[in-house]
TrEMBL record:
MF-aspect GO terms: carbohydrate derivative binding; glutamine-fructose-6-phosphate transaminase (isomerizing) activity
Entry's Gene Ontology BP terms: carbohydrate metabolic process; fructose 6-phosphate metabolic process; protein N-linked glycosylation; UDP-N-acetylglucosamine metabolic process
Residues of the full protein shown: 247 to 615 of 615
Catalytic residues in the record: K364
GO cellular component: cytosol
Enzyme nomenclature, EC number: 2.6.1.16
Protein name in UniProt: Glutamine--fructose-6-phosphate aminotransferase [isomerizing]
Record has Amino-acid biosynthesis as a keyword: no
């Protein structure tokens, strides 16, 4: 069943271009508008939404963090993202005009289920983003947008994450479309760009050999740090989570702007630091700031592993290792930037002799609180 791969994780990483394409399938009409009628929340109700709250755990939570950037930018609706396990214990403010998005691959995560039950008790509408047909979370939600990743077997989530991102972008763009924000033209352009993402992920996968080699060379390290900004920040968190669960290494993700507020004290000779660089187009201020972060940490001895867009030459002098990703619109970059981090973690786990598909102490779906 592993289709010739040594591990399900490798197979699932390789399936990502198809998973992304399948999740878009039938949801964009030939004129470039989104058709999410399957969601069955009337457009009128979506126009009345005053707040969006995303609840999820682990990797799905990271998808939620990225969704916030997309939802707030394209819809101007305030969006909060909260760990499902924390949500109901703080007496969150919810009412009929709150749209709660519960993201879950399995649809059986108890923390997420309890959060959505709490939200519905307070009168909020719940939209599930889920990969498992007929599972508990979509059954208990008001509406569901399924991700079409196909079954994910490896404990470490990969293709489900990319499709969760696609689903969240679709929700954000759809909300923007039905509410008619000032970003109408941008929304139409991004919908077109989404169609190219599957091919971009494919291209990333074709260039992963140097990443595997790099991972093997770091097998005896104790710590790897990850830095990002804007949507690259949750990508850094996801890269660190993958490394913890698969390689059993100490790994932490930081918002690069926080470096000087503490984490820079961790930088010492030869510590590997993975930096996700935003596109030099788009929010170029952030790009320039992160390039100076790379210079700062390198001056303190860090081994810099830089993930940057093709054609971005400014990073070249400061990158000990350079991983290229295709150019995408800023908000869509996580779809390509996450892939090398998955490959990196998988290869490090292998090099350290760990069980890739079944990391110690972990279960594929966490059905207890
Ligand atoms: O099935 P879910 O998406 O609700 O699972 C949530 C987390 O348990 C899950 O993403 C976990 O963090 C993964 N093992 C990460 O790779």
């Amino acid at each position: 069943e592993k289709g010739g791969y040594d591990y399900f994780m490798l197979k699932e990483i390789a399936e990502q271009p198809k998973a992304v394409a399948d999740t878009l399938l039938g949801r964009i009409d030939p004129a470039g508008s989104l058709t999410l009628d399957e969601v069955r929340i009337p457009a009128g109700a979506l126009r009345e939404v005053e707040k969006v709250v995303v609840v999820a755990c682990g990797t799905a939570f990271h998808a939620g963090l990225i969704a916030k950037y997309a939802i707030e930018h394209w819809t101007r609706i305030p969006c909060e993202v909260e760990l499902a396990s924390e949500f109901r214990y703080r007496d969150p403010i919810l009412d009929a005009r709150t749209l709660v998005i519960a993201i879950s691959q399995s649809g059986e995560t108890m923390d997420t289920l309890m959060a959505l039950r709490h939200a519905r008790e307070q009168g909020a509408k719940v939209l599930a983003v889920c990969n498992t047909n007929g599972s508990t979370i979509p059954r208990e939600s008001d509406a569901v947008l399924y991700t079409h990743a196909g079954p994910e077997v490896a404990v470490a989530s990969t293709k489900a994450f990319l499709t969760q991102l696609v689903a969240c972008y679709l929700v954000a763009l759809y909300l923007g479309q039905v509410r008619g924000t000032k970003w109408g033209d941008e929304i139409r352009a991004v919908v077109r760009d989404l169609a190219d993402i599957s091919g971009a992920v494919e291209r990333v996968l074709e260039t992963m050999e140097p990443v595997r080699e790099l991972a093997r060379s770091l097998a005896d390290k104790n710590t790897v740090l990850f830095l990002g900004r804007h949507v690259g920040y949750p990508v850094a968190l996801e890269g660190a989570l993958k490394l913890k669960e698969l390689a059993y290494m100490h790994a932490e993700g930081f918002a690069a702007g926080e470096l000087k507020h503490g984490p820079i004290a961790l930088i010492e000779e030869d510590v590997p630091v993975v930096v996700v660089v935003p596109s030099p187009r788009g929010r170029s201020v952030l790009h320039d700031k992160i390039v100076s972060n790379i210079q700062e940490i390198r001056a303190r001895g860090a081994r810099t592993i830089v993930i940057a867009e093709e054609g971005d030459e400014t990073v070249v002098p400061y990158a000990d290792h350079l991983i290229r990703i295709p150019a995408t619109p800023t908000l869509l970059q996580p779809l390509v930037a996450t892939v090398p981090l998955q490959v990196f973690a998988c290869e490090l786990a292998t090099a350290r002799g760990n069980e890739v598909d079944q990391p110690r102490n972990l279960a594929k779906s966490v059905t207890v609180e």
